[in-house]
Amino acid sequence: MDTPLNDCGCCADSAPLPGPRFNAPGLPAIHYRIGRHGEFKAAMLSSLSSTRHPALAGLRTREHDDFSIALCDAGAVMFDVLGFYQERIANEAYLRTAVERRSILELGRLIGYTLSPGLAASTHLAFLLEDAPGLPSLAARPVTVPVGTRVQSIPGENEQPQTFETTEAVVARVAWNAMPVRTREPQRLVAGTRELLVRGIATQVQPGDVVLIVGDERDRDDAESEQWDARVVTAVDADPEAGLTRLRWADGLGDNNTVPAGRGVRAYVFRSRTALFGHNASDARLMRLTADLPGLTEADPNVAGARRWKDFAIIGSDIDLDGAFPKVVAGSWFLLAGGGTAPGSASLPGWVELYKAERVTQRSRSGFGLSGKITRLVPDTDKNLDQFRNRLRETVVFAQSEELPLAERPLAYPLYGSLLPLPHRDEQLVRGQVLAVSGQRQRIAIRTDTDTHAFQPDGAAPVGLKPGDSYVVLASPRKLDGGTEEPVAPEELDELLRSDSGQILRWRLADRQSREGRLDAPASAVALAAARKDDPVHSELVAIDTLGIAADQGSQVQLKDALANVYDRRSVTVCGNVAPATHGESVSELAGSGNAAQADQRFLLKQAPLTQVSAGTPSGRRATLVVRVNGEAWEEVPSLYGRGANDHVYSLRQDDEQRTVVQFGDGSEGARLPTGRDNLRFGYRKGLGAEGNVRAGQLTTLLGRPLGVKSVLNPAPAGGGQDPESRDDARRNAPLTTLTLGRAVSLQDYSDFARSFAGISKALAVWARFGGRRGIFLSLAGPAGAAVPANGATLANLQQALRHYGDPLLPLWLHSYGAATFRIRARIKVSAAMEVEPVLAHVAAALREHYGFARRDFAQAASIDEAMAVAHRVAGVDAVDIDQFYRLDPGAMPALVPRLFALPPKVLANGSLRPGEILTLATGPSGLVLEVMP
Length: 934
Fold this sequence. Notes:
Elements: H1 37-48, H2 67-91, H3 101-110, E1 122-129, H4 136-139, E2 143-145, E3 150-153, E4 163-166, E5 170-172, E6 179-180, E7 184-185, E8 195-199, E9 210-214, H5 216-221, E10 228-239, E11 244-249, E12 266-275, E13 297-299, E14 307-309, E15 319-322, E16 333-344, E17 349-367, E18 370-379, H6 386-389, E19 396-404, E20 409-410, E21 419-422, E22 434-440, E23 443-446, E24 450-457, E25 463-465, E26 470-481, E27 484-487, H7 490-498, E28 504-510, E29 516-522, E30 526-529, E31 537-549, E32 555-559, E33 573-575, E34 578-583, E35 585-592, E36 602-604, E37 612-614, E38 621-623, E39 626-629, E40 632-636, E41 649-654, E42 660-664, E43 680-686, E44 699-702, E45 709-713, H8 727-733, H9 736-740, H10 747-755, E46 762-770, E47 773-781, H11 793-805, E48 812-816, E49 818-830, H12 836-850, E50 862-863, H13 864-872, E51 877-887, E52 899-900, E53 906-907, E54 913-914, E55 917-921, E56 928-932
Parallel strand pairs: 40-41, 47-48, 49-55, 49-56
Antiparallel strand pairs: 1-34, 1-45, 2-5, 3-4, 3-44, 4-34, 6-33, 7-20, 8-11, 9-10, 9-12, 10-11, 12-19, 13-14, 15-18, 16-17, 16-19, 17-18, 21-32, 22-31, 22-33, 23-26, 23-30, 24-25, 24-29, 26-27, 26-28, 28-29, 31-32, 35-43, 36-42, 37-38, 39-40, 39-43, 41-42, 46-47, 49-51, 50-52, 53-54
């Protein structure tokens, strides 16, 4: 065996440094170092013995304390340090591998991409005006809330106050402070109606009284019209709380031949019930043997030898009532009943006819062996009077009609859908106006005890129903019919709940523990219940589509979108004094002086960050900066390249610290600033980012109070606020500018264009045929998985931008994405050498990162084996057993589903559009439960 004579390495061959390194594509970092300290030192020591350096042949020592060897060691240290930083710098030269945001910012500028500086949040502010009691003319005056009205938020814990400013001037009115919605409606006395609502509780109407329902058809149009109804009251129920009385009868209004009154309907009660004069006359046949009364009696043709009263009938058209009735006056109604052989009704048998008294006289009369006071009525028509003419004894007269004030019917059903009924006519409301709707959610109560139906909380075991259980309604109910769901209109819901149809309704509810779930039960099993005093008030913003006037002169406001909540209508108020506002505070500053002798002048904004608001531009944002030179506003452009020498333009550049520089031209590309002293002024707003996404009700402090304004608040949370673009987001978005070049042509272009739009994080475009037209259906997700509001500025501006930079004739449907979540329950076996809690925490962090919004895409599925693989990558995990793996859909039960799917965008069979879903692990402790496996 060969053995070296020494181990000093003096005779060793030269040890070359590693050659060029190969980096596979797609790596998160490249390897660029040519060597490390040991490799550099070994190479230099080897070179000392190389024949290529004969001058060093006499240097034979390799001891570390030798100055020559120490110099090599120091050189190796230097080369190692330089190699380390060289590799870091090399990584910063590539978009995929750069770790510094500044590097990505500069790389993006090479292709014309500017990192998003962020976006200001937007919301709407509802203003309440000072009322002027006793001065209606002053209260009726409109108040203008100007642009730039400042409102500040009340910060919560670890928050800073945020300032918002209105972006549009709005005209506000005292009447719009808190408009109620309609809680009552005119009674609909249609065929089959069996009740009448009367204002007040002291109506003096008793069971057995007769009420009359009559309208203009009989009163004004045609005296012989049969469009009227008379009914005998069977029940009287007073409702002091509502201030009305409910009268009920047995037979519904109308019959097979006639319909009830339809115009100018009024109701009367007959206070007097009497008979015709002569009804109690003695039978003339009993007087045959005792006397003959010449002129008063006559032979009875039906009985031989007998006599009868002469003219024992109604003579002409005079109706003589038996007695004096001073309260029966001309113009009042009276009713003849009991004549003829017509069936009438069960409560009023025989023929019944209605007349109006044209003349009323009080007089005395004798006849038929009787004498006394009578009240003579002359009717407005003699129609069917022959039915009563020879029936003095059988006919009953109902007279002394007294009008009953009709009450409006209380609306018991909740407020939801796209129709907003207001009780008063208001022609000042206009199309497109934003309204703030506030109120408590409707409740339902269980009527009966049932074992066949149960409340199904999401992801939990069913809960049995007990009479009196109360639930909060989260969404409008649906009818279940043959396995399909159909919407239920509010008016239809009222009828279903009062009927015994057996119709199954599907409810989306929350129980007293705030657990959301589903209830499928017959309509008769539940009843509407009033909201409780401690129920929270929910608010939302809606926009007017059309404005109509109801038959009773109330306003029928058709909304562009349906209400998001189901409200107890008695708690609802509507504010019409609503103005749009965005995050940011106005700043005005004297920037400096122009110098025509200097090219490319630059000025730094003194305050940061510059507010950027949503706009219909390719980037989706617009700076709020206004530059004035000698009082003239100059125009912002993306770049000065290609601009004319006399163009009054400027461009903006932001550094990595959000400082904004305003740059002017050099006289060739863009005009130079004219020479002047302090002739350059900036007006802009400062503030943006996610910190502006304040909660509903936080914006309440008026920093500048317009005349007549009392208070302000934001009914809905602010949204759309976006922090400056992160390194990873910029890495993904920068190449999109080279794909679209500011235009949307192909289907993929629409996705890429939307993804690079401010306020949009993920987008998916698909072809869809909707309403007979083929167009593009875009599913959109906001930053950090936030929804993109349908009535928000981001969606409207994206639609506008796609129209301008895409095909303006192509149908476009933009929807916020479907946020789907799932639950994992697993047992983890931790290695005996590891601490349990840290390992479980690392597993939870790994799963949440892997299934977080940032890592997920549209229609991306999740599987058990994938989750187990993620957990097994954590150090210290020996085994994983997943017990529950299921989607948290409404009514879902705990299950172990091998693969969970996220639904793609689709046009459903009912014609509605279903946006694409992104499936993520549910947040909160219930979304991920980890236990220790023994």
